[in-house]
Amino acid sequence: MAKKSFVLLLSFLITLVCCAGCGGDMQTNEDSSDKKSKAGTGKAQTAAKKIIEPGQLISRTEAESFAGEKLKNGQCDEKPEVGMKKCFYGAASEDSGNFFQISIQQTLCMPQTALESGQNPKTIFENTKKILSEGRIDLNGLGDEAFIGTIALHILKGDYYITIRLGNPNGKENRKELEAAGTKALEKLQSLLI
Asked: What separation, in Å, do the N-terminal and C-terminal C-alpha atoms of the chain show?
């Protein structure tokens, strides 16, 4: 019973981290795709062989096309306890609250202790999907599974869990743009894994 409670609590905390905006210490990065990450000791070595940076999936220029306005350079952050890398592109205009954020969780970035407790991108995605069941919009044709919930697009593709948020606090109003961004991110993911 205690283990089940722990897993549920951990899943809830992971969901909060996934849905968080641009919290924490973030670093500005001109082009995340140039940044090379190394899996540290204690990181899982699985079928996935490459660590993917979120800026490799959606560049600032691409994010601008989905947001419909100029954006600042990406601010990158990591949440290693859940294997997450995140890139936040804020509006260039001081008068706009618009933004584009993409995060990716991947087994190669997760600590061994999390993996041993049964956490991986797929289980985190599934738990998030359960938690966000109310008002969730399930989607077909994006990755292995996808849905829109709590102002974000959530995509599971193999060993990767991608989350995309786009400015407006109502993901349903941004559905077309979110799906287009998800399609672009999946195309790039596929090309990076070849």
From this structure: 43
Tell me the residue length of the chain: 194
Torsion from C-alpha of 64, 68, 71, 77, nearest 10 degrees = -60
The ranges assigned to domains in the chain are 2-193
100 touches 63 (CB < 8 A)? yes
- Number of Cβ within 10 Å of residue 125's Cβ equals 26
What is the block-wise mean pLDDT of the chain (194 residues), using blocks of 10 residues?
40 40 39 37 46 96 94 95 95 90 95 92 95 92 93 94 82 81 96 89
Task: Take residue 14 and report the two structure tokens written for it.
Answer: 């992971």
CB atoms within 10 A of CB 51: 19
pTM over 0.85: no
Q: Is 80 helix (H, G, I), strand (E, B) or coil?
A: helix
Q: Give start and end residues of each alpha helix (H) in 1-118.
A: 2-19, 54-57, 60-67, 112-116
Closest Cα partner for 137 from 122, 150, 128?
150
